[in-house]
Amino acid sequence: AIRCLVIFLLVALLARPILTRTSERVTVLTVIDRSQSIPSGLQQKSLDYLAQALENKAPEDQLAVVDIAEAASISKLPSGDITIRQRNTTLNGQQSKLADGIQMAMAIAPPDTAVRILLVSEGNETAGDLKEAARTAAANNIPIDVLPLRYQYDNEVIFKRLAAPTRARSSQTV
Q1: What is the per-residue pLDDT for 100?
Q2: What is the dihedral of CA 170, 171, 173, 174, to 10 degrees?
Q3: Helix or strand holding residue 134 (H, E)
Q4: Angle value at C-alpha 155, between 151 and 156, nearest 5 degrees
Q5: Which range is the signal sequence, renumbered to this chain (predicted)?
Q6: pLDDT tens across 23-54, in order?
Q7: Topology of domain 26-148, per CATH?
Q8: Is 104 helix (H, G, I), strand (E, B) or coil?
């Protein structure tokens, strides 16, 4: 009897059994770019689109929201409530650290549901490594969907630095 048990255990170990969990519940971790580079009208349209899409969710599905700008901020933990708040006013919108938002979303992902990340952004990352964050999500079997925010500024000029003397005479060329 012991020999049979040992042989059975060896065969089971050599077969490399895999434990698969299935779940009918889905959690969508929404990462929303709230930086100032995105026009406010476009941000509102994206929120309206999300609200409309969420009306068709199953009752057991969950939503979480992570706002990103110069830092990631959890706006809403995973729950059945589908309301999305306006921009988190504590965020300074000077930067877009998209990788931080993806990492924060993975950190709040519930273990008992299937998880998807929805990135709402124009894709202009100013700091961090979004590709590395996406690789980490893929390694954890978390797909990332993107709702691209497209806009165009015509005749935009950006100054990195403007140098001029502190004083000038009326006839002097500056």
Answers
A1: 86
A2: -10
A3: helix 130-139
A4: 70
A5: none
A6: 678 888 888 887 777 777 777 777 777 777 77
A7: Rossmann fold (3.40.50)
A8: helix
Strand order in the sheet with 72-79: 72-79, 62-68, 26-33, 114-121, 144-148
State the pLDDT at residue 86.
65
* Rounded-to-integer distance, Cα 113 and Cα 119, Å: 19
* Block residue for tokens 């124009």: 122
Domain boundaries along the sequence of the chain: 26-148
d(CA 48, CA 166): 48
> pLDDT (tens digit, 9 = 90+) per residue, 82-102?
677 665 555 666 777 888 888
| Rounded-to-integer distance, Cα 76 and Cα 145, Å | 19
**At which residue do the structure tokens 């509102």 appear?**
44
Contact present, 97 and 70 (Cβ < 8 Å) = yes
